[in-house]
Amino acid sequence: MKKQSLFAVPTLAIGVLALAARPAAAADTWSFQAQLAPANNSTAAGTAMVDVTGDQARITVNVTGAPALMQGMPYAHAQHIHIGGQGVCAPPTADANADGAVDSREGQPFTGAIAVSLTSAGDVSPASGAAADRYPTGGSYSYQRTVTLDAATLNALQAGNAVINIHGADPAALSAPAQNAVNPMNPALPLATDIPIACGEFVAAQMQVPEGPADTGVETAGGVGANGLAGMGVLGILAAGAAALGLRRRAVSRR
Length: 255
Known about the structure:
This protein is of the alpha+beta class. The chain folds into 2 domains: 2-26 and 216-254; 30-204, Superoxide dismutase, copper/zinc binding domain (Immunoglobulin-like). It is built from 5 helices and 13 strands. It has helices at 2-21, 104-111, 151-158, 176-179, 226-254, and strands spanning 29-38, 45-53, 56-64, 69-70, 73-74, 79-84, 112-117, 141-148, 162-167, 182-183, 186-190, 196-201, 203-204. The strands form 3 sheets. Strands 1, 2, 3, 6, 7, 8, 9, 12 and 13 form a 9-stranded antiparallel beta sheet that branches. It has a two-stranded antiparallel ribbon with strand order 4-5. Strand 2 (45-53) and strand 3 form a beta hairpin.
């Protein structure tokens, strides 16, 4: 009985340590983000976020500094998620025809092909890549839509092989050859509508650590999260075990 009481607390502490060390089950959710940097000498920039649960992806895009008008009308900016290339934004050296701009065809070896067309409504397949009437318009805009994501696109996002392009350059800023060319996906549109003005490479988003146990409404003081509380609990048990062991040894030594 004395041996059992002597080792009961340390044994409990070891059990708690083993429980704390057990890995948590992975949730069927992912988040990816991209910083949109100017491309083709534009002033456009912004952010993009993809939050995935199962095969549903909530996609958020915020853009500033894009051309606001095209031939006096609100400028529709095509936006796509690309996969299957090198997973990077196309560099200026990709300008194969030397017209002063890297169009989508020249950039494809780097970004990959269109996987998702981020339209405002309707189809989101590559077939809607140049659907000018279904893309956000203006110099600054915020876009959010939930779409069904196929396995290839999710795998590319997880592998760091997905890129987002925002299209729609200012025609006046292009060279004469580029101004006279047409959009390869829709010859009724000028090449300017195809040229990327901002690009970003998706990476896994940093996870936010909750400030308290989930779904309890309990807040922890001093910004200590649930893992911190568990750690302090384990340390407390170990300290109690050590104290009990010390008391036991002192009691024995006095006999």
